[in-house]
Amino acid sequence: MHATTSSLKQSAPAGATKRNFRWRVVDIVVASVIGVASGVIFLVWNQASNPLSGLLSPLLPGLSALLGGGWLFAGVLGGLIIRKPGAALYTELLAAVVSTLIGNQWGPLTLVSGLVQGLGAELVFALFLYTNYRLYVVLLAGAGAGLAMAINDLVLWYPGSASAFATIYIVSAIISGVVIAGLLSWFAARGLARTGALNRFAAGRIAGRTAI
């Protein structure tokens, strides 16, 4: 038995280490910075989205959900950079808290949205056991956040909506989550990594590879 165990240890891939999912102080600090900065961006997007929504809504009912990604990226970006359980949920919820405290048109219900949207992204990262952060996983996290947003909005803001509206809203929200929250967060993380700002994170140490 001893010989077998030793053989297994020797045959393990070189450099293989067990992932440590405990949060470090630097994880908390950087996740908090992402959450607060995202919350400020949310406030800007709150104002910018109004005229844009006015242009999209007449084209097709429910199409305004294409703008939803502007409120979804915090969780995806946080999860992508921190790579620890709870990171996506924490950053998205913190961004919602900042948006609520400074003031927006939705009030405390923004916290519900932040919680649900953060969970949408968090569940995708959890599905891959917080070990896979390739582009397709990040896009799926954006899609998860978009789907969560759509379901939450349809329940809170559009109860009893026609099936056509609900379908268009859900599809538009998912597309927005993939493109804005997913793809843009991917490029943002790669850009930050190249500056050296993420050197203390896995996202920064392998910046030059296909998977950040």
TrEMBL record:
Which Pfam families does the UniProt entry name for this protein? ABC_cobalt
Coiled-coil intervals, chain numbering: none
Q: Where are the transmembrane segments?
A: 25-45, 65-82, 89-106, 112-130, 137-158, 164-189
Write down the superkingdom of origin. Answer: Bacteria
UniProtKB keywords? Membrane, Transmembrane, Transmembrane helix
Under what name is this protein listed? Energy-coupling factor transport system substrate-specific component
Q: Which organism is it from?
A: Cryobacterium levicorallinum
